[in-house]
């Protein structure tokens, strides 16, 4: 039981302000505010319509209604999800700053063209490149550069030609999806039609799996070279024929001009001696 002295001591102790306690709390608040301000400056910014997970360096922009590659993707991004949007093309330097990127998902878009070297700037750490379920018809090694990432190209309306064949031989295609690369159209062989025909027209290999065509011995590059050689021969023949026609026309035109000139000369009156000239000659003798 607390006596009067005890109550006085307790009251005096509780009412007394402990030295340094308010100062420590105020300093802690200042340090916290300073750290928060610094973190706000150095922390990366997540692009609009995207969700960022910083601990795994993952940026998810799936089903965000995007029509182009968003700007401001953090350079520390390791996994980038851009699938199920309305993206139509990939600019040349769209991913040039993402040096740590390992997984790039671009499936289920409307991509129908790749800028020259669009994927060339992807770093050597890239492990997966998903371009499936798009509208790609043509592609070449220049667009992909030297990437060795596992690549998905299935479910695209491919036009099978020499460039696509060379790309197939260069890329590290995912084995499980390689059978899904089907020729919607292909280059035409000799006797199938004009070389200058629309590439959208169907060839004899339309609807067939590209890998099976290549395994069966179909070589689109040799086919293209043969078609090119024939086209060059036809072009040379046409030019040679035109030169011959011009030479024949030129010779005939000159002959006609020469004939008209001779006829004109024949039509001129021959020079005759006048009587005065005859008398002068007689007087002289």
Task: Give a quick set of tags describing it.
285 residues; alpha/beta; seven-stranded mixed sheet; two-stranded parallel ribbon; 11 strands; 39% helix; elongated; disordered N terminus
Provide structural commentary.
The protein is of the alpha/beta class and 285 residues long. The protein has helices spanning 4-15, 21-42, 141-144, 162-170, 210-215, 220-267, 275-284; strands at residues 51-53, 58-60, 79-81, 89-90, 103-105, 113-114, 128-130, 150-152, 158-160, 172-173, 183-186. Helices cover 39% and strands 11% of the residues. Strands 1-2-3-5-7-8-10 form a seven-stranded mixed beta sheet, with helices on one face. It has a two-stranded parallel sheet with strand order 4-6. Strand 1 and strand 2 form a beta hairpin. Helix 4 (162-170) runs antiparallel to helix 6. The longest helix is centred in the C-terminal third of the chain and has 48 residues, at 220-267.
